Amino acid sequence: MIRPNQKKGLFLVITGATFWGIGGTVSQKLFQQYAIDVNWLVTIRLLIAGFLLLAVQWVRKDYSEVLAVWKNRKTAVQLIIYGIIGMLGAQYTYMASINHGNAAVATLLQYLAPVMIIIYLVIRKQTVLTRNDLLAVTLALIGCFFLLTNGYISQLSVPVIAIIWGVLSGLALAFYTLYAVPLLARYDTLVIVGWAMIIGGLALSFIHPPWQLDFTNLTLEIYLYLFFVIIFGTMIAFWFYIESLQHLSPKQTSLLGSLEPLSAVLTTVIWLNEPFGIFQWIGTACIIGMTLLVALNKDS
Fold it and tell me: Residue 141, exposed/middle/buried by CB under 10 A (0-12, 13-18, 19+)?
């Protein structure tokens, strides 16, 4: 029987993963239908979501930790690197892939990160390649082939630039995951991610200041989509996902987090009417299967 706290955890992780996936689809609509600049959206998304996550930490938990992370020089340097290369890298490459292709393919390519982590750890001799690892890599390769070609080697389902950005987003997410380990061991997750978002947003602000946009052309519909991407698709999605770890095991959270690519695919195909062939569905199943296999292989 599911305990009350488990029900809360299930609600949080399912809602968070679903919002994250849908947020990618809404971003695609903003880029391709309303010509919202990807640099501007990434900047404003990171800055607002980062401030909101730190506000949640300040109000609900230990507010002193929000500033304590900057008192150690080594930690501060690590946080800046994490914010620019990890957070900004993962967010920008993901959004660029959506901008040039679609949210479904971009999200699934980003979910190759677990395989990239496995390969990195094997090369560094920090782990031994197991049968499950080989199966995960095989599923990822088969899934990518079908997803990107729809079974036809002579043609791609999305432009090459979208694939390049998508693969880079997987690499950035792998770095984001690995580099965060020592930081998360010392500080609360909301603090690290909140500051990383702000650092990434500030860094991109030098290239594309958030106030450089013709706000007179923004309709109420565009504002509502922006609100969803920033609040529900970023801030609440991440907050709920992290909060679910208080009620579920990391394995359960990782497994249910696989709803993110599924929700991105479904909303892209159904809402935006993106063409999606049978072999692309097979590829999607392979990549989601790979993430489930990796999650199941973790300790509870």
Answer: middle
Between the alpha carbon of residue 134 and those of residues 114, 118, 119, 283, the distances in Å are 12, 9, 10, 17
* 36: nearest Cα among 95, 85, 89, 103: 95
Burial code (b: 16+ CB inside 10 Å, e: under 16) for 221-249 equals ebeebbebbbbbbbbbbbbbbbbbbebbe
Question: Are 29 and 272 within 8 A, CB to CB?
Answer: yes
Amino acid making up residue 268: T
Q: Return the structure tokens found at 150.
A: 């729809």
Rounded Cα gap, residues 256 and 17, in angstroms: 8
Encode pLDDT of 110-150 as tens digits. 988 888 888 888 888 887 888 888 898 899 889 989 999 88
Q: What is the Cβ-side half-sphere exposure of residue 175, based on CA atoms within 13 angstroms?
A: 19
- Dihedral sign, CA of 13, 14, 17, 19? negative
- φ/ψ of 298, rounded to 5, equals -85, 160
CA 141 to chain centre: 20
Strands (E) located in the chain: none
What tens digit of pLDDT does each residue of 13-51 get? Answer: 889 889 999 999 999 999 999 999 999 999 999 999 999
Q: For residue 252, count other CB atoms closer than 10 A to its CB.
A: 18
Q: Cα–Cα distance between 112 and 144 in angstroms, integer?
A: 9
Q: What is the pTM of this model?
A: 0.88
Average pLDDT over residues 66-85: 93
Rounded to 10 degrees, what is the CA torsion of 38, 41, 43, 48?
Answer: -170
